[in-house]
Amino acid sequence: MAELRLLRQPDHRVGGHGEGDLVAAGGAATREGNVVFHVVDTSGVAPAVQCSRLLTALPGEATACNVLNFIPTEVGYTGGAWNLQIFHWSAGQTPYELSSDTDIAAALAAGKGTLEITNILVRCPAVNFAALR
Q1: Judging by beta carbons within 10 Å of its beta carbon (0-12, 13-18, 19+), is residue 76 exposed, middle or buried?
Q2: DSSP code per residue over the chain
Q3: What's the distance, CA 15 to chain centroid?
Q4: What is the pTM of this model?
Q5: Alpha-carbon distance 34 to 85, whole Å?
Q6: If you average pLDDT over residues 97-119, what whole number do you get?
Q7: Phi and psi at residue 8, in whole multiples of 5°?
Q8: CA-angle at 70, arms to 66 and 71, nearest 5°
Q9: Do residues 118 and 86 lie in contact, with contact meaning Cβ atoms separated by under 8 Å?
Q10: Are 61 and 55 within 8 A, CB to CB?
C-alpha cells in the first residue's frame, strides 16, 4: 500500500495521497467511518481503466488507484486511518472507473461485484500518530 491513491474529493476530482502503513485493526471490520476501497478485476489486479485518469494527470507515479470515502478537511473525516475494503468485479462484467464511494455502492447495488471487508487499517502518513498519544 505504499502507492499514490485515487481519492474522492468533495467535488469528485482526482487527487493523490502518499504512502501509508498497514496495521491490523483491533475491532471487527465495518463499512462505517473512513474506508479505502481497492478495486480489482477477476485476476486480482486493478483494471487499467481504474488507473487511466490518475496516470494521465500524474504520469510515472506508482499507484494502486484506490478510492477513499473521506479525506482530511472534508466534512465527516474522523481521523487518519482507513479500513481496507476490496471491491471485486464479478466475472463477465466489464470494469469501468469507480472514483467514489457512491460509484462503488452503485456497482454493488447493480450486482457488478462484491465487497470484501478486511480487518486491515491503512494509516495516513500525513498524520503524526505519535503526537496523538
Answers
A1: exposed
A2: --SB-----TT---------EEEE-SS---SSS-EEEEEE-TTSS--HHHHHHHHHHSTT--B---EES--TTSTT---SEEEEEEEEEPTT-------SHHHHHHHHHTTSEEEEEEEEEEE-TTS-GGGG-
A3: 12
A4: 0.70
A5: 10
A6: 94
A7: -95, 110
A8: 85
A9: yes
A10: yes
Render pLDDT for 30-86 as a digit per residue (tens, 0 to 9): 345 788 899 999 999 999 999 999 889 988 888 788 888 877 777 777 677 889 999
Q: At which residue does the C-alpha cell 487527487 appear?
A: 15
Q: Which of 45-59, 74-88, 90-104, 115-129 has the lowest mean pLDDT?
A: 115-129
Q: Which three cell numbers stand for residue 107?
A: 456497482
